[in-house]
Amino acid sequence: MSSSMTLTNHTAPNTKHVIPPSVFTLRRTAQLEALYTIIRNKDTSRGDFIFYSDRIIRLLVEEGLNHLPVVPKVVETPTGAQYDGVGFEGKICGVSILRAGEAMEQGLREVCRSVRIGKILIQRDEDTTLPKLFYSKLPQDIAQRYVLLLDPMLATGGSAMKAVEVITEHGVAEDRIVFINLISSPQGLKTFSTRYPAVKVITGWIDEGLNDRAYIVPGLGDFGERRYCA
Amino acid sequence: MSDYLDVHFRDRSNPKPTPLIVIDTKVLTNTILKSHGRPPWYGEDGQSISPAFVIGIAGGSSSGKTHVARQIVRALGSIPAVVIMSQDSFYKKHTPEEVALAFTSRFDFDHPDSIDMDLFAACLSDLKNLQQTNIPVYSFTEHQRLEETKYLYGATIIIAEGILALHDPEMRKLYDLKIFVQADSDLMLARRIARDTKERGRSVDGILEQYLRYVKPSYDNFVLPSSRHADIIVPGKNNAVAIELISTHIRRQLQQRSRHFRQKIAASLKRSLSRGPPRELSIDELGLTVLEQTPQLKGIYTVLRDRTSTRQDFIFFTDRLATLLVEKAMEMLPYREVNIETPVGVQTQGKVIDVESLCGVTILRSGGPLEQGLQRVIHDVPIGSLLVQSDSNTGEPLLFQVRMPECIRQRHRAVNTWVFLLDAQIGTGASGFMAIRVLLDHGVNPAHIIFVTFLVARNVWLENAKRHVAFLDEDGFDDAQQHKAWVVEPGMGQIGDRYYLN
């Protein structure tokens, strides 16, 4: 693991880790990199952090939605022509992992209007150091819905796996869950995908790894802190 | 004549600038007069056909220059846009000493040296070459040039008036027609006394002193001698016949230019027809970048094309699509590398947009539905607008209004500005073509213009040819047929109506 304060290039393709087949990333354009540069920079103001992280979140949600099925649909246009289009199939809902996941809700709602959003609070148990469920409030008919699971940072994968466990306990099939995050660590991706290979993961950027305090590097710090407090 | 826009009223002795409510011919300066929209001023190749027609009007103070200018405008009737530029705007920046003199009426405002002729000629030259210009604003209450400037663009006819309008050789080179308004000195003095005592509350003694000290010498030494450069000398009163002659001349000049324009379009149409039968153009030939056709994108288009979609759905999905389009357009900007430190304490390399300024320009009305997307993607983006409407008879695009953000108004900034040009669809491409010409006129680099649109008709080539046939054949093509030709099939209907009205 590279120690802090060394110059790294987060654009360099990561050859050390193989990306699991259930993981999808956004195309690495200069513009996406510029967005990440803004939210990674410790000197970025809170206003800019919110604006630019929302842009990435919208792109991630758009990508996530493309993994949901559509059905053929023929419509008539205002000019009277027929158009062979597609309709959106099935109902969806969001589930955010408190509290950083909540920050992704606005971006979600800009793409999926008035979507239902469940919430899960998971924290590290002081005794066992394992993630523990403290609170969950999910839509009653969640079993009939596709679930977009929201958590901005995938570090060790502990809380995400706990969240999937809770959601599947409510009757949602694994292959109907799409996990959306902004930045992930290779270790976290590997752990998560090995445990839940049927859950699709949409990640904006795969970083170098974790430091000794389990923070993603180069990362962007504490997402919830920067979004709500900084 | 019609409505008058952006009228400013300045009076040398009035303590406060007064907004002009009643149009008075005497005080109308630096004014754009518009009757109806401006038809294309460029050919098929996008190049301008001819520069603006420039008239210089000189003559002594109170000789009736402005009256002549206004009468010419009136006689010309329905012309697209006329700018009247006054020499008074171009008084030089004064030193504090000069300002003090001016307040005691001891500054010579009638001498050629008091006028910034270089700037006057530069601004006039910009306008003549169909570019934007920013003319200075002079305050007669402060006796000083102000920091602000006034933006002008898009005149077909320019009238430059002032006592010394024919004095400067550089200025004279720019005129297509030079007019000198001749009035007897005693008549001018009489008018001056009448005006200044009644309207400005000045004493006859004061008026005479100023007249003898500055006005008369300037007239004798500079103004009157410049009359030998005039093409025509117009009497300062009873001049209806002279004005009729002048306006007939101008009208004929303008008609010749417009005939030339139509010939050029006809020639280019023949050329394009000789290229063979119409066919669908490939994406590359059209120079397009098309969004990846994902299931979600197809789903969005299905909602937008569906005539039964509710207005709420139409708006929501339009905004969503606009956001995706602008995100895609952002990929075309240049980026450079930058080093940053993250809150975790790690140095890393990233990228940052390498653009001096960035703005949106909306083609009204249907470009409006893309604005929400632009604002979601670019923080505090300045957005200008152009109102382009099709003439219902000819199908010709007409430019009605130009509102440009600051970064385009100033030419030196425009050359470094990237523009997202927004319009809902490209059918014939005529309004987009006009909008691009406006941007180029302002100095925007064509490589810096990114046209963002929901739909493009694949047979743009065919549509373009049809448009020109309709344009050239003045009797043919009834309305219904024309309009049918311009509707994009299967299309989304009138996007502006569906977004704003239905």
TrEMBL record, chain A:
Q: What is its EC number?
A: 2.4.2.9
Q: What is the lineage of its organism?
A: Eukaryota, Fungi, Dikarya, Basidiomycota, Agaricomycotina
One BP annotation, GO:
pyrimidine-containing compound salvage
Presence of keyword Membrane: no
One MF annotation (Gene Ontology) recorded for this entry: GTP binding
Write the protein's name.
Answer: uracil phosphoribosyltransferase
What keywords are annotated for this sequence in UniProt? Answer: Allosteric enzyme, Glycosyltransferase, GTP-binding, Nucleotide-binding, Transferase
Q: Which cofactor does it need?
A: Mg(2+)
Q: In which pathway does it act?
A: Pyrimidine metabolism; UMP biosynthesis via salvage pathway; UMP from uracil: step 1/1
What is the scientific name of the source organism?
A: Multifurca ochricompacta
Which stretches are transmembrane?
Answer: none
Q: Where is the Phosphoribosyltransferase domain?
A: 29-229
Q: Which family does it belong to?
A: Belongs to the UPRTase family.
UniProtKB/TrEMBL annotation, chain B:
Pfam families for the chain: PRK (PF00485), UPRTase (PF14681)
* Annotated pathway: Pyrimidine metabolism; CTP biosynthesis via salvage pathway; CTP from cytidine: step 1/3; Pyrimidine metabolism; UMP biosynthesis via salvage pathway; UMP from uridine: step 1/1
What EC designation does it have? 2.7.1.48
Q: Where is the Phosphoribulokinase/uridine kinase domain?
A: 54-235
Q: What are the alphabetically sorted keywords of the record?
A: ATP-binding, Kinase, Nucleotide-binding, Transferase
What broad class of enzyme is this? transferase
Q: Which InterPro entries match?
A: P-loop_NTPase (IPR027417), PRK/URK (IPR006083), PRTase-like (IPR029057), PRTase_dom (IPR000836), Uridine_kinase-like (IPR000764)
SUPFAM superfamilies named among the record's database cross-references: P-loop containing nucleoside triphosphate hydrolases, PRTase-like
An MF annotation (GO) of this entry: uridine kinase activity
Q: Which domain of life is it from?
A: Eukaryota
Query: Catalytic activity annotated for this protein?
Result: cytidine + ATP = CMP + ADP + H(+); uridine + ATP = UMP + ADP + H(+)
Q: Where is the Phosphoribosyltransferase domain?
A: 293-500
State the similarity comment. Answer: Belongs to the uridine kinase family.
Q: Per its UniProt record, what PANTHER family does this chain match? A: URIDINE KINASE
Protein name, entry field: Uridine kinase
